[in-house]
Amino acid sequence: MVKRPAGITLNSYIYLLIASLGLYAGFSLTSQNLFALATMFLLGVSAIGLYLGQQWAWWIIGTMTLFSIIMNLPQFFLVVFNAEAIPEAHKYFLKFGGKLLIQGLILFFMFSQPVIRFFALDKITHTRRFLILLSAAAGLFLVLYLW
């Protein structure tokens, strides 16, 4: 069996913490958003699957990360191109730029060789893995925003 990369353990704990806090906040609010609760539950289950080395968890986390990048990219460019019209634009630049940087690093890490070996995804090329994630993220976007 391939040894679990330390970054996978760290990401699993972070995602599990985020999911736990999201579920706690979602249940403690007076108006519960069912979609947000379902997303946090899926993130928590995927975090456990990621820790255990389940391929499906790699695909779900990868899709969610790429989807987040796709959603934050327009906001980042909006701030960059309209910086002079936005009061305190540097805060928004750091907010969206920081999100993109962290998500990009996570996605880059998910495509690293030790992670790919751990999840037994080495039979699929990097390009094909990325295109599958891109298709899944685009499908998620279409379902959520154009339906």
Brief summary of the model shown:
With 147 residues, the protein is an all-alpha fold.
Q: What does this protein look like?
A:
- With 147 residues, the protein is mainly α.
- It has one domain (6-145).
- It has helices at 6-28, 34-52, 55-81, 89-110, 113-118, 126-145.
- Helix 1 runs antiparallel to helix 2 (34-52).
- The longest helix has 27 residues, at 55-81.
- The radius of gyration is 17 Å and the shape is globular.
- The N and C termini lie far apart (43 Å).
- The mean pLDDT is 90.
Question: What's the SSE blueprint?
Answer:
Blueprint: H1 6-28, H2 34-52, H3 55-81, H4 89-110, H5 113-118, H6 126-145
Helix pairs in contact: 1-2, 2-3, 3-4, 3-6
Total of helices = 6
- Name the average pLDDT: 90
How far apart the termini lie comes to 43 Å
Helix/strand order, N-terminal first: HHHHHH
Largest sheet: none
Tell me the number of structural domains.
1
- Helix content, binned percent: over 70%
Strand residue content: under 5%
Q: From the helix content, strand content and strand pairing, which structural class follows?
A: mainly alpha
Q: What is the strand tally? A: 0
Low-confidence spans: pLDDT under 50, at least 5 residues?
none
Rg over CA atoms, rounded to whole Å, is 17 Å
Shape: globular
Quickly list its features.
mainly alpha
